[in-house]
Amino acid sequence: MASELTIGVDIGGTKMAFVVADRAGRVFASDTLPTSADDSFDKTADRIASLLNPYLEAYSMICGIGIGLPGPVDAERGIALHAANLGWEGVPIRDAISTRLTKSPPIYIANDVNVGAIGEQRYGRAQGVANFVYLTVGTGVGGAVMIDNRLLRGASASEMEIGHVSLDPVNGRQCTCGQRGCLEMSISGKALIAHARQHLAGGVDTCLSSEALSTRAIIGAAEKGDALATHILDIAAEALGIACAWCVNLFNPKLLVIGGGLIHATWHLLEPRTLSVLRARSLPLNYEATSISLSQLVDGALGAAALVWYHQNEGQP
Ligand SMILES: [Zn+2]
């Protein structure tokens, strides 16, 4: 039996994943439960506790529970501020779980992007790196910044909203945040589809069709050399390169970890252009100091388990 263990809980829009793991990332138990926005918060908290309590009975050396959440959190007060897929607004997740447990290990919460960065530092590409930026691109764009082994934290827990930094505030596509030309309008799953729709409406020669449009279809078409799909991914690659250069110039990281579903699915198409734009747009001194790496896709629940070590080690990874 390992000495100290932590529990990680990754709460997503469709499922919750649980692990019991040690400091080295060895997993002793794991489980998943479906989530539903139809369930009340109390019911979801009951279901989470019904899984955690047997773990607490079975493993005596659990020194904390980390919970990753899909949206902004108030980590100090233990509140999930907004989780649209779960229908949660300002719910006291930490206390709700704590009062349902038979034992009282400390509980830490963080949003899933910060959990991703912590997971990469403990178990993934950023091991041993004290200063790095983590960018994740999927349906949207998120990011986290680790400086001297501490995550950058904003005044309202909404730091690093790089997806809403504008590349083209005058002529760019309208974003849901009210601005035009946000990064998220050039590189994200929804951006690729919106971009393709715009061109399809104008009638271009492409194998893409508006009836069967998906990011997967666009990637497949680009792999076959389709001109429209290639154009859309070139724009995405350029936007990603610019975003990487922002990070390199602003934070002077030793490492830039990029990940998320869309990046992993498209990196073979994006890489040359993204890296050349990054190089061209970065200050030389900053560029030379930075390596770039794809994320290792550390399991979300394992990242949440690492959240406990992050807090209890006080900055020493
Ligand atoms: Zn925006």
Index terms:
317 residues, alpha/beta, Nucleotidyltransferase, domain 5, 5-stranded mixed β-sheet, globular, binds zinc ion
What does this structure look like?
The structure is a single chain. The chain has 317 residues and is of the alpha/beta class. It has two domains: 5-119 and 299-312, 2-Layer Sandwich (Nucleotidyltransferase, domain 5), CATH 3.30.420; 128-294, Nucleotidyltransferase, domain 5 (2-Layer Sandwich). The protein has nine helices and 13 strands. Strands 3-2-1-4-8 form a five-stranded mixed beta sheet. Strands 11-10-9-12-13 form a five-stranded mixed beta sheet, sandwiched between helices. Strands 5-6-7 form a three-stranded antiparallel beta sheet, with no helix packed on it. A hairpin with a 4-residue loop joins strand 6 (79-83) and strand 7. Helix 5 packs across helix 6 and helix 6 crosses helix 7 (261-281). The chain is globular. 42% of the residues are buried. The mean pLDDT is 93. The structure holds zinc ion. Zinc ion (ZN) is lined by residues 164, 175, 177, 179, 182, 184.
